[in-house]
Amino acid sequence: MKPPYFLFDIGASHTRIGVSIDGETIANTEIYPTPQDFGEGVNILTQKAKSLVSGMSALIGGIAGPLNQGKTMITRAPNLPNWNNKPLGEELVKLTGAKVFLENDTALVGLGEAVKGAGRGFNIVAYMTVSTGVNGVRVVSQKIDTNALGFEIGKQIIDFDNTFDGEARVFEDLVAGSQFMRRHGKAAHEIDDAAVWEEEARLVAYGLNNLILFWSPEVVVLGGAVSKKIPLQSVIVNLQNMLTIFHELPQVRMAEIADFGGLWGALHWAKSLS
Q: Where does residue 210 rank: exposed (0-12), middle (13-18), buried (19+ CB within 10 A)?
């Protein structure tokens, strides 16, 4: 499928957009708050697409949450409840007249990091985001790994009997940005206490331990807004102490593409679409 493409990444807190005219570069990037109302979100997205791209062949991008089997809408997204079961793909086609391709937002960010960021040069890349929520993806040979239902690693049960945190059972409840107010009384970006971030590094390492055991990657890339304040070396030290079954650990790196990994992932994905 030939460009031009309108690229988007609808996250739980912010939406990122961009345009690729030549199929190789991205221009006119922008970040804006994600509307919680589905209709408003679709209208803003289509208005921006029409104003930025003339004769676009497709809208390609990700959205936060698990998708239905046909990948036309999200179904059980905890952070975008008013978007659930709404015909996102159908509405975008109707309003723009272009083809629409949807994927999970974290999957495309991970693909972007595997192709153009911290995972480039590796065949098996595991990506994990710690942001408003937590999720990840396995990328093999520069493609999102084959799957039946998608990836939702933030929902793995860590504290099965609620002995560590009486209100948390799953990994996401322990480390996600949305949980900082409950656990610490402040938003993540407001906290500079080194002890809090050392504890966050320890908890993140538990999730990475499981991710490495299940996915056996060559490199792990850690991204997301919250991860920017996590001391990476502390994560690695904790991981070395807990993951001893393998003779060596994969590399653990911070994401490199900053805010637009999802757009680069969408652009790479576009090359395999028709």
A: middle
Angle at 197 between CA 195 and CA 200, to 5 degrees: 115
- Supply the pTM of this predicted model: 0.94
3-state SS, residue 43 = helix
Phi, psi of 264, deg, nearest 5: -65, -35
Concatenated DSSP letters of 228-240: GGS-HHHHHHHHH
What topology is assigned to 5-108+260-270 in CATH? Nucleotidyltransferase; domain 5 (3.30.420)
Backbone angles phi, psi at 58, to 5 degrees: -160, 155
Query: How do the domains of the chain map onto residue ranges?
Result: 5-108+260-270, 121-256
The pLDDT tens digits for 138-187 are 999 999 999 999 999 999 998 887 777 777 789 999 999 989 988 899 99
Helix axis angle for 38-52 and 88-96, nearest 10°, is 40
What CATH number belongs to 121-256?
A: 3.30.420.40
